[in-house]
Predict the structure.
Amino acid sequence: MAPTAFAATAFAAARSRAHGPTTALWHAVELHRPAGEVDGACELTLCGTLARVAVDEAWPSSSREVCRACATLAGVDR
Ligand SMILES: [Zn+2]
């Protein structure tokens, strides 16, 4: 596994709110603080949205409702 710029970066999953026809999505938030301090907080996601951090949800989420932009920016796009 080659080292990348993201190697030392931890991400948390954050749930955005549904806007009209858009369903709520799981976004990635860069963790600059201990996960316990950001749990439940609204943080800026990689794609620039505000979403509520849920540290008990793994990122990348196993859910299909994952923000494509965040997945790409976090380097987990498959
Ligand atoms: Zn996103």
Q: What stands out?
A: The mean pLDDT is 85.
